[in-house]
Amino acid sequence: MTESFWSNWGRNQNFKAEAVVMPRDEDEAISVIRSAVRAGKSVRVAGGGHSFTPIVETGGILLDLSKLTGVISVDQASGKAQVWGGSKIADLGEPLWDQGLSLANQGDIDVQSVAGAIATGTKGSGKNFGSMSSRVSSMRVVNGDGEIIDIDASTPEHLLAAQVSVGMLGPVLRIGLDLAPKYCLKEENVILPMVEVLRQWDHLLDEYRHFSFWWMPTARSADMYKLGDVPADHCFVKLLREVPGDLADVPQGEVNRRTDRAYRIYPDGTTVAEFHELEYMVGADQAREAVDIMRDLMLKRFPDEISPLQVRWQKRDQGFISPQSGRDSTSISVSGEIGRNYNPFLQAVDEALQPLAARPHWGKLHFLDRARVRALYPEYNRFQAVRREIDPANLFLNPHLEALFG
């Protein structure tokens, strides 16, 4: 056991657990979970601490599974791999590459645990690519009775519930992933006036594997995410093309013009949180409307908020409480500066996007209550049925999740 006080990387979630336990291997992890279950104690998992919401908090046992890391097995013929849930995303790139495989897509940060990223619906950008969760083909959890449960396509209700579960189906020990043949990415990142991004919107979506952008409402905005010198009402536009996987064993080019292995290109280098982020997903067909709403809100009502507006795309999936469930999506994110009262701004964003049935990234700030969750996720009841079956005593909930799913 280690020190029982825990804080996330954003420093906005702090609590004291009864104990923080770091098992040395899978058998020890199972033993710890079973002991907690027998004692009727709450169990949560710390992951990489990258979430801004209180999803990790527990007064019971907090598991740190970071010693369960790396690739367990690879089936090159089927393009599948099994990995330890405690692995960091960054841990997977090179060993998968050595087997001729890559993650099909990933986001700007790679320091999260794989299980945590999947549990919260973490994703990158590209209209033809889903979240990391959508690539989950199997999962091993320990349920609320202390039993080992192996979930896969033979139990489709369980699999669709597990793909995004915010940890409510129990600690995740192993994850099976559907992968892509190894590939490289070529950066063509540019700075464009917003009017030009709007003009080229459809072309950029169709032309590039990955298209995303940050719009700057002020001349100071780029400093928040360390995006370089980007004038107000301009965008830092991230554009990535896929190129064959044998072209870049040696990195080529300078920053924003590099060609390299995909897992080296995706991350933007952010390792310290200097902001607290809110991210909501709307239907992809509502993306332009959402951006117009946000620009109007930020320029007219909150001119002192410097946060860039980040816009990304994802393909629909079937996870019961996935933000992309049943619809191609566009993610809209802004951040509050640490040390400032940003709640009025973020609450206004929440209210402005509600008419578009916006769904949150579960690891980022949001203002949902149970009624809104029920309304936003058509498969809410199917998720709840699986959750209650796997965790009948609600040992994997905490106060935040109890309010939404208890």
What does this protein look like?
This protein is an alpha+beta fold. It is built from twelve helices and 21 strands. The protein has helices at residues 26-38, 89-98, 114-120, 156-162, 194-207, 221-224, 262-265, 287-301, 343-353, 370-376, 380-390, 399-405; strands spanning 5-7, 14-16, 19-21, 43-45, 61-63, 71-75, 80-84, 101-102, 136-142, 148-151, 172-178, 180-181, 183-187, 190-193, 210-215, 234-244, 259-261, 275-283, 309-314, 329-337, 359-360. The strands form five sheets. Strands 13, 14, 15, 16, 17, 18, 19, 20 and 21 form a nine-stranded antiparallel β-sheet that branches. The protein starts with a strand and ends with a helix.
Cα-based radius of gyration, to the nearest Å: 21 Å
- Could you tell me the strand content as a percent range? 25-35%
Sheet with the most strands? 9 strands, antiparallel
Distance between the termini: 29 Å
Give start-end ranges of low-pLDDT stretches.
Answer: none
Number of strand segments: 21
Class per helix and strand makeup: alpha+beta
Mean pLDDT: 95
Question: What is the share of helical residues?
Answer: 25-40%
Please tally the helical runs, counting DSSP H or I stretches of 4 or more residues. Answer: 12
Shape: globular
Write the layout of secondary structure elements.
Layout: E1 5-7, E2 14-16, E3 19-21, H1 26-38, E4 43-45, E5 61-63, E6 71-75, E7 80-84, H2 89-98, E8 101-102, H3 114-120, E9 136-142, E10 148-151, H4 156-162, E11 172-178, E12 180-181, E13 183-187, E14 190-193, H5 194-207, E15 210-215, H6 221-224, E16 234-244, E17 259-261, H7 262-265, E18 275-283, H8 287-301, E19 309-314, E20 329-337, H9 343-353, E21 359-360, H10 370-376, H11 380-390, H12 399-405
Parallel strand pairs: 3-5, 4-5
Antiparallel strand pairs: 1-2, 6-7, 7-11, 8-12, 9-10, 9-11, 13-16, 13-17, 14-16, 15-16, 15-19, 18-20, 18-21, 19-20
